Amino acid sequence: MTNRNPRSLLWVSALLVLLACAAASAEVAMFDPMFRAKLWADRIAELVKENKHAQVEAETQKFIVWLKQYEAKYPKLESYIATAYGQRSTAEAKQGKYLEAANTVRESHAWKPNPANVDLAMKYTMHHMAQSEYYAKTIEFHNKRIELKRQILALVNEKDALIQAALKSKDITKDQLEKLQAQLKALSEKVAALRKEQKDLNDNYLKETEKYRKDEIVFTAAQNLQIRVKAATAEKLRDTIAKVEERVAQGLLTITEKYKWSWDGLEELLGKMKDLQVKIMDLQKQMLALMEKKPLSDADKKKLLELKAQLDKLLAEQDKLMADLEKAFMDTKTFFKLSPEQQAKYLEMFKTIREAAKVIGETTKKIDAFLKEMMVKYGDLNGDGKIDRLDLAEMLRKYLVPWTPFRKPYDKAADLDGDGKVTWADYNLLKEAVLGDRKTFPVDPENLPGDMDGNGKIDHEDVYQVAKYITDPKSFLECYKKIADVNGDGKVDLKDLTDLIGKITTPTAPTGDAAGSGKAAPPATGTGDATGVTTGETGTGDAADTLDSAY
Predict the structure, then answer these.
(1) Residue 14: inside a domain, yes or no?
(2) pLDDT tens track for 382-392
(3) What are the pLDDT digits (tens) for 138-173?
(4) With contact defined as beta carbons under 8 Å apart, do 448 and 484 qualify?
(5) Is 0.70 topped by the overall pTM?
(6) In the chain, how many domains are there?
(7) Fewer CB atoms inside 10 A, N or C side of the chain?
(8) Cα–Cα dist 312/551, whole Å
(9) According to DSSP H, which parts of 436-524 are helical?
(10) Cα(102)–Cα(116) distance, integer angstroms
């Protein structure tokens, strides 16, 4: 038998006594009402923070019953009771249980009267009454909403029945299509009226119930369940209506296509194309007439661009119709179901339409070329609407540096001396314009007669240049001939030099657009603007007469 150390036994015994005391203290604490009340109150406070209203309601109800068992013996528990009543009534109100919340306040008042309880009980009672009104209005709203949707569904089902019946027909005549369209229109108007009524219903409901939402009136769980059932019914009807309307739209598209490829539809399509081409030709005639004017005023240019926008729109419509007509002709199922007489008529009209389209296309090319010429702005190589150092860099990078990978083909806006190529001479002219020494370029049709250096005024340097041109015209580019021809008689001689000297010694009164600028009016040649636009040949020829004879 091993001998035990008396000192060790003493320490073990002391430790066991301490553990027993601690356990006894914990057990006593657990059964201490004040200690337990604090733990319970803290747990309820956490539930309040988490908005778990139903749990708060259940816990506070049990907590109050428990507290009242110890209230007489432990007066300090009274504060817990008051708090618990408040938490319970608030939790009930948050769930829409306003009548229960009012009764909880009354119960609290019976336990300990408080004037504030009267106001609170009145508030909850009034909320209960408001909730009843709110709920009744909401149920009524959903019932009416459901009824309107059922009426709409009945109407779209009628439309669907008409569509399905029409789809069973082998062919659709124009009369059948017009009758169907009239029936569908009548039904659609009724649907639109019901939807308007539905919108008004929704607006009125929101207006009438705004006060309840403002007061934060909420429904009970049972009320919310009933409202959700009603809303689900309405949403199901909405989805059904959408599916039927989608089927109607698809069916109508099929019927329209069926009519489109019938003889009635094709004949209508041919007529539309003929009318459209007549409009296009008339528009082109207006543009050709404007293009013949020299020079074009700013108003003329603006009008041309407006007409071009209209023309582009009509041409796009023509392309669409032509694609349909070509499809009908190339599709054997479509073309060969026509009678021989119908085929012959189709071919005759289709041939005329194609010939007219060819003339329209050729004229459009001429118009496009003219407009492109008209819109050229000499020196503006990057298209930003101004002439600056960026354009100099653009010319250098894309035309003049031999090893550049960015080299571009010939661009008229960069050929400032009009020799048909872009060289260092063009670069120097552009540099003068950037530095402000030059207003126009040699190719500019708006140059002042005699303004050989393009600085926008007539001076002695211009006299020197015209004199030099007279003695040695081959040293000048062709474009300078027009500038040196001061009197506009088509040749440069001493008379031009005399007229130029006369302009310097006795300036002529400014006229037209040059009034007040000190510049003589430009000659009546070209159609460009002050940006340096030339027109070249209009290329209109006999286009107008050809258009007249297209049909």
Answers:
(1) no
(2) 777 788 888 78
(3) 999 999 999 999 999 999 999 999 999 999 987 788
(4) no
(5) no
(6) 3
(7) N
(8) 21
(9) 460-471, 479-484, 494-505
(10) 12
